[in-house]
Amino acid sequence: EQIEKGGYPHFMLKEIYEQPQAIRDTFRGRMREHKGIIKMAGVDDHIDKFLNAKRLVILACGTSWHAGLVAEYIIEELVRVPVEVEYASEFRYRNPVIEKDDVVIAISQSGETADTMAAMKLAKEHGAFVFGVCNVVGSSISREAHAGAYTHAGPEIGVASTKAFTTQITVLTLLGLKIAKAKGKISTSDFHMHLEELRLIPEKVEEALKNNEHVRKIAEVYKDASNCLYLGRGFNFPVALEGALKLKEISYIHAEGYPAAEMKHGPIALIDEQMPVVVIATRRGHYDKIVSNIQEIKSRKGKIIAIVTKGDVTVKELADHVIEVPEVMDSMSPLLTTIPLQLLSYHIAVMLGKNVDQPRNLAKSVTVE
Ligand code: G6P
């Protein structure tokens, strides 16, 4: 097992560090920049389904559901088609409205999650075209789907999902760009700009990983917290949910993710000097609004850990701690802002002596209801 961990103390840390390569492996061979195309056989073979879809419905559980939420923001923005993201477990039991011209996307790292499998079968029964996004090649969901795309993240052993999440977002970004191009919703120059941004993501993830020691020191300060709030807006709202999930899963600290503006409808009542609040406050995404959310937290004495764009000055003055990520276009920022949140949870869990790779009560793939 030590050999498999490749010198890292835990699989989770190894997998966090594998993300630059995993993301590269996910887009390698698919981005044909010189030709200005994205090659995805599972989409190319069924392009009519995607072109005619009135709606996309995403089905998933856990971290994969969070990747689905990020995809909702990305695909709606690029393709201008409505996207709904459903918990597979809810979808399967509520007699859902599914039409023949819906395209259903089932996202599952393991490809074995019972609820996701049952939900996709139900969608098929209603005549929908089902596209699978899985990491494990030959898994049940990948076989049951009409077509699909693998994430190529390599085996993920840590129960808390890391590289599967970022590679799911990568695949779904490629999918959004591809459909947008096929539908004529994106200009050639914009399409190229997106491909170029995506191509640079692995290097930027590497840069974000260089903050590891800084993040560890922040973890030291907050490891004994009983609660933690995570806030984000827009593309980074699902990242707030995912950050909170990571902390819960491996450190057993109660954490909640919220859209920052919703704070005033509840969580603000919890804020006092005992409450660390992690705020994703990168420059492009509703920056001014996030800054005013940060001021609201500060005036209630909450402790602020802000994820900011490199070179930020405004938030730096307000926050107790800042963690920088490289500049990137807004829609791709989740691929970077996720990194420090993974590291923060990891270090807190290690400091608390928790079993990081196999947290209590959780399983890597949930094959029963
Ligand atoms: C379990 C795992 C999570 C995962 C979820 C969905 O709860 O512990 O890490 O996100 O299942 O798994 P899937 O394989 O369908 O993505």
TrEMBL record:
The keyword Cytoplasm applies. Its main location: cytoplasm. The keyword Cytoplasm applies. Residues 46-185, 218-359 form the SIS domain. GO terms for molecular function: glutamine-fructose-6-phosphate transaminase (isomerizing) activity. It is found in: Cytoplasm. Its EC number is 2.6.1.16. The active site is at residue 364. It is an enzyme of class 2 (transferase). Keywords: Aminotransferase, Cytoplasm, Glutamine amidotransferase, Repeat, Transferase. It catalyses: D-fructose 6-phosphate + L-glutamine = D-glucosamine 6-phosphate + L-glutamate. Catalyzes the first step in hexosamine metabolism, converting fructose-6P into glucosamine-6P using glutamine as a nitrogen source. This is Glutamine--fructose-6-phosphate aminotransferase [isomerizing]. It comes from Leeuwenhoekiella parthenopeia. The chain holds residues 248 to 616 of 616 of the full protein.
